[in-house]
Amino acid sequence: MPQTRFTDVRRFDSIDSTNRYLLDEARDGAPEGVVAVADHQTAGRGRLGRTWEAPAGANLLASVLLRPDIDLGDRHLATTAVALAAVDAIGAVGLAGVGIKWPNDLVDPVGRKIAGVLAEADLSSAGAPGVLPAPVVVGIGINVNWPGDDADLPPELRGLAVSLRQLSGTAVDREALLDALLEALGTRVDDLDSPEGRAHLATDLRRACTTVGTRVRVDLADESFEGTATGISPAGHLVVETDGGTRLVVAGDVVHVRPGS
Ligand code: BT5
Fold first, then answer.
1. Dihedral, CA atoms, 222, 224, 230, 236, nearest 10 degrees?
2. Which stretches within the chain are classed as H helix?
3. What is the pLDDT of residues 43-73, one digit of tens each?
4. Where are the domains of the chain?
5. Closest by alpha carbon to 81, among 210, 212, 198?
6. Does the beta carbon of 197 sit less than 6 angstroms from any atom of ligand 1?
7. CB-based contact 83:187 (threshold 8 Å)
8. What atom of ligand 1 comes closest to residue 46's alpha carbon?
9. Closest Cα to atom 3, ligand 1: which residue?
10. CA of 222 to the centre of ligand 1 (A)
11. What is the per-residue pLDDT for 261?
12. Residues in the chain with pLDDT values less than 50
């Protein structure tokens, strides 16, 4: 295994959710850097109560425990760090052209979803003297060898999801991908710690982001609007030009970002 600070890798044949596991470990005081990897999840989580689908033994399902000592307003960049590390790792196993659909999806050049990232925070101990910085658990599901083709997918995901195997035409080694991910995470997570590093994450997100330059419909919890995504702000927020002016969209507020009309 390459040098990485993510050396405490806990493996599960089957678990409900690697994110749930690490959030519980974090509450018991586990340090930054613990990784959970599962062959199968019985209750894989997406954002906002959605579910993550993956049959046993085919894909990469992993979570990392981070404790970034940064302002609440910068913690969404933990999602960016993991998404960029995954783009790096997929590149390292030979697949270029993967983009990031802001804020949390890895997509192929025609917009099909290769991977999703889910950050879950536990702020209950934030700010208490003498305790570790509050945890954020960032999970990623990467479609590695499933689906083999569209017929493998449940009907609602056909045409929307794609695997590295479909894109490369050959099976991809999950262990090599995990090693590459942990190595890339070392650098990307270091970037969370400094203003320069965070600016670097936002710059790389802007480069990788397929949402910039497109018409979008942004669904927030209490309103929706349309506009053109024109950039990523230095803080990592999506900049959207609307008829009513410029809007800065914060990842944590978003229900959906969809193609606009
Ligand atoms: C995500 O949510 O994309 C975050 C997914 C995070 C999964 C990882 S696996 C390891 C860790 N442990 C967990 O319990 N979770 C994390 P969201 O943006 O809400 O997208 C979820 C939606 O993606 C679903 O409602 C489906 O429409 C779609 N979806 C589900 N499984 C998929 C798959 N394998 N490939 C592509 N799309 C999928």
1. 20
2. 18-27, 77-92, 164-168, 174-190, 195-208
3. 999 999 999 999 999 999 999 999 999 999 9
4. 9-208, 215-256
5. 198
6. no
7. no
8. 2
9. 116
10. 23
11. 85
12. 1-2
- The protein residue whose alpha carbon is closest to atom 9 in ligand 1 is 141
The predicted pLDDT at position 217 comes to: 96
pLDDT tens, position by position, 186-227: 999 999 999 999 999 999 999 999 999 999 999 999 999 999
Ligand 1 proximity of 52 Cβ (cutoff 6 Å): yes
| Span from the CA of 140 to the centroid of ligand 1 (angstroms) | 8
Which numbered atom of ligand 1 lies nearest the CA of 48? Answer: 19
**pLDDT value of residue 1:** 46
Q: If you take atom 23 of ligand 1, which residue's CA is the nearest one? A: 52
Gap from CA of 52 to ligand 1 centroid (Å): 4
Among 23, 94, 26, 18, smallest CA distance to 54 is for 18
Name residues whose C-beta falls within 8 Å of residue 92's C-beta, 6 or more positions apart in sequence: 180, 183, 184
From 15, 52, 79, 117, mutation site for ligand 1 pocket: most ligand atoms within 8 A of C-beta: 52
Q: What is the pLDDT of residue 131?
A: 77
Domain 215-256 matching CATH 2.30.30.100: the answer reads: yes
Give the span between the Cα atoms of 14 and 145, in whole angstroms.
Answer: 18
Distance of alpha carbon 139 from alpha carbon 250, whole angstroms: 19
Report pLDDT for 132: 85
CATH fold for the domain made of 9-208: BirA Bifunctional Protein; domain 2 (3.30.930)
Q: How many Å apart are CA 56 and CA 176, to the nearest integer?
A: 18
Q: What number does the ligand 1 atom closest to the CA of 140 have?
A: 8
